[in-house]
Specification:
single chain, alpha+beta, Ribosomal Protein L22, Chain A, two-stranded antiparallel ribbon, elongated
Length: 110
């Protein structure tokens, strides 16, 4: 039996979030939470909270043993971008894309 947690419209670029997601993919939940807790990146704290939410969702089901959970699937999709303008020399302007992410984690028991 599996449990799922989704975070949508998170203000971190998908590329940066995927770097953290690749480190914990397929591992045990407890080991992943412990390693994410001590990583200095912004994405580590975000992914840890989503992972803890997935574990809390699994706790609601009586038939799931929380101690044997592992990360079955974790993926980061791109969300909508905020488009901003940065003024440049001689009346020009550059576009700044502030990216957002949708983070999905599915945990399952072994």
């Amino acid at each position: 039996m599996e449990a799922k947690a989704v975070l949508r419209y998170c203000r971190i670029s998908p590329q940066k979030a995927r770097l953290i997601a690749n480190l914990v993919r397929g591992g045990q939940v407890e080991a992943a939470i412990n390693s994410l807790r001590f990583m200095p990146q912004k994405g580590a704290a975000i992914i840890r909270k989503v992972l803890e939410s997935a574990v809390a969702n699994a706790r609601q089901n009586e038939s799931i043993d929380v101690d044997t959970l592992y990360i079955k699937t974790i993926f980061v999709d791109g969300g909508p971008m905020l488009k901003r303008i940065m003024p440049r020399a001689m009346g020009r302007a550059n576009r700044i894309l502030k990216r957002s992410s949708h983070i999905t984690i599915i945990v399952d028991e072994q």
